[in-house]
Amino acid sequence: MSKVIKNGTIVTADRTWKADVLIKHDKIVAIGHDLHADHEIDATGCYVMPGGIDPHTHLEMPFMGTYSSDDFESGTRAALSGGTTMVVDFCLPSPGQSLLEAIDMWSNKSTRACCDYSYHMAITWWGEQVFNEMQQVVDKGITSFKHFMAYKGALMVNDDEMYSSFQRCAELGALPLVHAENGDVVAQLQQKLLAEGNDGPEAHAYSRPPEVEGEATNRAIMIADMAGAPLYVVHTSCEQSHEAIRRARQKGMRVYGEPLVQHLVLDESEYFDKDWDHAARRVMSPPFRNKQHQDSLWAGLSAGSLQVVATDHCAFTTEQKRYGVGDFTKIPNGTGGLEDRLPVLWTKGVNTGRLTMNEFVAVTSTNIAKILNIYPKKGAIVEGADADIIVWDPEKTKTITSGAQQSAIDYNVFEGIEVKGLPKHVLTRGEIAVENFAVKAKPGHGQFVGREPHQAVSKALSTWKELVAPRKVERTGIPASGV
Ligand SMILES: NC(=O)NCCC(=O)O
Ligand SMILES: [Zn+2]
């Protein structure tokens, strides 16, 4: 069946204009005037934008002795309800486990996804098997690899492993990702705080100051540069980390930074709430920061030194958070955010003048589609693109409350925030998943999106690496050895 979106204003990362959008099956087939189809979607007073892409989610993730509570069904329903039409989750092999086995496990989990999805692969250990399997992982369309510099004794990799993995990424044209926090320093600070009797959720923030993030970000950038690889820094939360990214980009390095909507909007005072549950529900790594850091992140988005706003959606119930009563290091790290990312960012970004509408589209969709090499299939309103489209009503308001959310957990870190600007209709590859603000997502509709290595970036980096490679100087008249 064909569909046409009529009377709306199209907003993309580059421009804003009036036109109708014609959809056949799962694709956009025409953009123009006076287009007609079997089914008409009225977009009067609305903006028509590419569906959001959240490149950082953890659905049903085994972590800190439990599993994150949203699975691919509830997580992607939550995503669609807030205008996100694609998520990128993580295959997480346990130390020693085959990467290919981890892909099979995640493929079994994702069968009921309501929107399209892709994966990053986490590098949780290093060895010949991992080195070899990385090629097969890339061949299967997973072209980005996450490295945890934190979570010592669990997921953390050391510099030696990271350098080897980044070099392998460079060979394969893959993109390394880092969770940048100095895990050794964090582990020592945690023990010190506990020994001093600081066992509450506020100690989580004390144990992860911005310096541990700035140092790790800078280290990862330098290691990636030496390996000849680009670098994507996930959940950039502070000026120290942003500064390292900004400096690297000014030097011409291909480094990308991703703040989360939570870090942009929620600050460290959340951890000092008298209510233990309130504070623990907001425990995530890196932790929320103060207003100066938030200002730095907002500035980075409009200046272009930071490119993407994600959520790192990793939702735990209150009961799960209570595993850490008496020892903050046992509170499962992670917060939700998938369904609120776009409405909160629009309200706090576009409605305040911090972002233009076009910048909003860039940081929620188009930039990451380009970085992940899936543009313009995703992240664009052009003929031939997947019909992942939001019809956005800028006047619609709601107060965020956990009682009305799609996510499976029992609270919402944005509880009580009034948003203005919501998705009225959402299409996922041509299927209507939200109609007049009502969620109609279909489990099983989502498909895996395979990705190709980014040839242009890897060609540029390998050409440069070859030009500056060490070369033996051929000399005449070498003196005799002095021995
Ligand atoms: N960020 C967080 O606290 N939890 C999710 C896992 C991770 O990405 O670190
Ligand atoms: Zn992380």
From TrEMBL:
The keyword Magnesium does not apply. It is an enzyme of class 3 (hydrolase). Keywords: Hydrolase, Metal-binding. Its cofactor is Zn(2+). Residues 47-432 form the Amidohydrolase-related domain. It comes from the Bacteria. InterPro entries: Amidohydro-rel, Hydantoinase/dihydroPyrase, Metal-dep_hydrolase_composite, Metal_Hydrolase, Metallo-dep_Hydrolases_sf. GO terms for molecular function: dihydropyrimidinase activity. Its EC number is 3.5.2.2. Belongs to the metallo-dependent hydrolases superfamily. Hydantoinase/dihydropyrimidinase family. This is Dihydropyrimidinase. It comes from Aquibium pacificus.
